[in-house]
Amino acid sequence: MFQIQRGTRLPGVPAHGVSALSVSAPRISVPGVAVLIVGIALLASPSRTLAQRGGGGHGMPTGAGTGTGLASGVSDKDDLKNFHQAMAVQATDEQRAAFAKVAQYTQDASDRLTTFRDLLQKVPASSPLSDHATTLDQAIEQARASNKNFLASFSSKQKSGLKDIAKKLEKADSDLDKQVKTLDQIVQIVQTPKSDGEQIASSAASLGKELASFQDEQLALGREMGILLSTDGQDLTFNLPKVTNSINIAGQPVSIQTSGAVSRKSAGTPAENGRNLFSLKLTADLSDVQHNITGILRSALTRSPRCGERVEIQQATLTPLAPASLVVARVHFERWVCSPGQGSPMEVAGGDGTIEVKLSPSVGQQSVEQSAGLSLVSEITRVDAERLLRDMLRSGDLGDTLRQQIAASVLSALQKGTDLKATLPPAAQQSAILQKAQFQDAGAGQLSLVLEGQLQFSDEQTQQFAAQLKQSAQATPVP
Description:
This protein is α+β, with helices and mostly antiparallel strands. It has twelve helices and 15 strands. The strands form three sheets. Strands 4, 5, 7, 8, 9, 14 and 15 form a seven-stranded mixed β-sheet that branches. Strands 2-1-13-12-11-10 form a six-stranded mixed β-sheet. Strand 8 and strand 9 form a beta hairpin.
């Protein structure tokens, strides 16, 4: 439930009844955003940033918003076809288990190579290197053999869909084999590091590069198949494609770009019912809302009845006041009276003034049965006007009405522009829970909204999530 909440008024200002703005919004849930966490370090880096192949994903906007992440010319039929193709290459449970062993063997070979290179500096001059080279050869051969067996397990659809990336891995395997043979030849000739240690060290360094390339191609293949590896106990992060929503607010076209990331906070444990806890962070660029704020408020707040109070928004600004934001509106006010028997109304009061309204975002408590609740708490912080208008803005119904309408207009932009159905992949729309919201200064006075929450992923949801991320990247036009 999206709603406007009334905040604390200025000291001495009496309270007025407030009508809450309530906009229905389904709870963001994720029927399958998951990550298969294999506790094996393929690389020395403590964490991996994954799913970065596309600059934007296709969104699924609702209401007045129109997501622009889906490439033009991509039909729903093509979209579904791409999804099925992506799902067809995903790893089976047996393949995921086999890949874990493949990765372990490759890491063992890398560790052996590190030990071998260290020995070049430590072994006595008379110590033969052939024994150490043989141990290294065996570790690398085991890694290469297990890798070949894994490739041989592919189904016909996997062979077709993974043909290009499998060729890259086979090329890396061939280059690795050549470098192993080169090192073996040098070791047979030199025998001891004292004879020509520099030549051996150079060859071992080249072998290290080929083995690292082999590992990288393995990781790329695993990623394509929905098998994602990370270092034990370290974070695993998915960068969500940027999505731009082009929306219409009170007749004003506005674009809001939203980006985000999903990061693992902890691996699944029995206490978490076998699920992995992920943090969710989304950032919405509100610079276009700032640019159009005068038109937005003018369309929503300006009124000119024949008799009664006439209000015109002459100018407005929206600026960061982290973790809140501040709206400053220049208002022209007139009061017209229609007396019985008179043909024309008469103006009895008028003036210009400025009202400042502080907007603080918050997220209400949620449960499985409740919808995500993004609220704006509004508060009049300053009024600049003369006599009657000053009192009406500070403590009268006029100021209270303007405060509510300003907050409602900005909240409408947030609701439509940060549509989480357009930002999160379909597999991430059943279990997402918002926990925190705040405005930030993105630099040079540029306003952004940061939403933070969490997701719970099961291991079985990995393939669906990985496939949808890849599908988004494929549907995104190259700039």
